[in-house]
Amino acid sequence: MIDTTHLLDTGGLRLALSVFVLLAAAAGAQAQQPFTVGPITAARGSIASGVLEVPARPGDEGTTIPVSIIHGARPGPVLALTAGVHGAEYPPIIALQRLLKNVDPGALSGTLILVHVSNMPSYLARTIYYSPADGKNLNRVFPGKADGTLSERIAHTITREVIEPATHLVDLHCGDGNESLRPYTYWITTGRPDVAEAGRGMALAFGMDHIIVDRERPADPAASLYVSNTAITRDKPALTIESGALGQTDEESIARIEHGIAGVMRHLGMRPEGPAPVEHPILLERSEVLRSSATGIFYPAVERGHTVAQGRLIGRITDFHGRLLEEIRAPFAGEILYVLGTPPISKGEPVAFVAADR
Ligand SMILES: [Zn+2]
Q1: Tens digit of pLDDT for each residue in 337-348?
Q2: From ligand 1's centre to the CA of 238, what distance in Å?
Q3: Do 247 and 87 contact (CB within 8 A), yes or no?
């Protein structure tokens, strides 16, 4: 006769044992798990590179987004670094090329996702602000649309494949091809308080001493507009930084970005070594983008980094026959973070960015 009680007992024990084995295997697998971004997979302690495809739709040919994963030997944060959101901003792109060569995945806790050129159509056509494909500013269309224009589909792809799996993000910019800019960081305060506080720590860790306190980003994750704000509205601490200007690839601007990323990696515990946070930052509580109310030729009257009094002339705009159309003046005393360095100006576009600590 079959002893059913005994069978049940043994079965129960087997079940418990197999659950235990499964859980242990899952924990082990998590520690050893590869990291995947779209079609790109990196094993623990290794680097993998590839492209995210943005397929063609009626009206455009689609594009590709080159990405590398540096998957550390040990678990830790997933830091996404985006370059080339504006296609003529080169120091961030070159800094990520160097990072790819210089970071040892064997000595890394956590994972870096490098987006080398976010906006390939703009990069290849050398356009500032706007994509040649649809006339849109990629950093104003996030989180994007699966069936939208090319810029919207790039944004959708980056949101889904890069921002969603990340725990932290730094969006790397500089003065666009027409902007003469001194380096600074945007610390965005509009997210969840703990996310904003973590973003403050990252801003200090990046090391640049001019920090804009940015209180005006939208809070709706479905209309986040900006790359870094797409992370923040998904409760992931993030920053935007600016280093470089005027389509140049100067060593100082590139090295500053490398230094900043190394500081953030140390701050997040991804590597034991790295630069210390900035000690005496200037928190710029007040800032204003000055816009043109006319189309024509811009003549700057200040340089980046200049300190200006309230009412000081920032620049003049004339028409194409030399007649003065507008004088742009400082709305308050502050510092010029950027000013246009080339003549073209269209109505409504920025001509300068002024900021002050109060
Ligand atoms: Zn930019």
Answers
A1: 999 999 999 999
A2: 15
A3: no
